[in-house]
Amino acid sequence: MSRAEIFANIRRGLGREVPSDTQRQTVQNRLRAQADNIIPARAQLPRPQQVELFRAMATEAAAELIDLDSLEQLPAACDNWLTTQGLNEFICASDPQLAGLDWSDIQAAKAERVAQVGDMAALTTSFAGIAETGTLMLYSRADSPTTLNFLPDNHLVVLHESDILGVYEEAWKKLRNHCQTSDGLLQMPRTVNMITGPSRSADIEQTLLMGAHGPKRLVIFIVKN
Questions:
Q1: In whole angstroms, what is the distance from residue 87 CA to residue 99 CA?
Q2: How far is residue 181's CA from residue 212's CA, in Å, rounded to a whole number?
Q3: 42 closest CA partner among 145, 168, 162
Q4: Could you read off the pLDDT of 102-130 as tens digits, one per residue?
Q5: What is the dihedral of CA 189, 195, 198, 199, to 10 degrees?
Q6: Residue 138 near residue 196, CB atoms below 8 Å
Q7: What is the CA angle 107-91-137, rounded to 5?
């Protein structure tokens, strides 16, 4: 069944005709307005307190936080964490932020590719951090495929402190602005991932199991500048 046939069936079920130009414009105006829903007060804070709230919520969700003064410290910090976990290789997004760093002194083997079954660690960047729940926002693109976020047991993520926002609405607005073309069109990514701590489940006898549907560990490198 084609898309047009599906919409035609929906219109018939609702008792509606093909929308007029006025009705179409009304819908477009509503979409462009992007009105906020009710926003929790706990994240409507001065910026320093939003950063602290993100840290508290991410830690509560079992994420590990590692502070960096600059992005240039990432290769050594990443290599050190891998060494402490007994890991000697990792896969990495080909994101320009990461590709531009000096990885020549690390001990672990680094590969830029999509994740595969058996990969133990992946390193990616993030688009935003959401203080409200300590959540990371990532989106799929050619230089950072979604498989990196979910297949390996250990997910290492770079988050710039300046990208920490208060609430979800702010993160979505930032993403829409980022994805708007010069002619005003919105080209959203195919996948947007919201990640709060490692994967977990308590479906079996209410016993918490880490890594049930994805990484067992989430490590966030918070870059101050």
A1: 21
A2: 38
A3: 168
A4: 999 999 999 999 999 999 999 999 999 99
A5: -70
A6: no
A7: 125
Closest CA relative to residue 92, chosen from 168, 14, 144, 31: 144
Q: Would you call 200 helix, strand, or coil by DSSP?
A: strand
pLDDT tens digits, 82-102:
999 999 999 999 999 999 999
Sign of CA dihedral 139, 143, 149, 151: positive
39 φ, ψ to 5°? -110, 130
Give the Cα separation of 224 and 159 in Å (integer): 9
Domains within the chain, CATH numbers bracketed: 1-33 (no CATH), 45-223 (3.40.50.10420)
What type of residue is 145?
P
Q: Which two tokens stand for residue 32?
A: 């462009």
Amino acid at 105: D
Residue 57 is given by DSSP the state H
**How sure is the predictor about 19, in pLDDT bands with cuts at 50, 70 and 90?**
confident
Parallel, antiparallel, or unpaired for β 200-201 and 209-210?
Answer: antiparallel
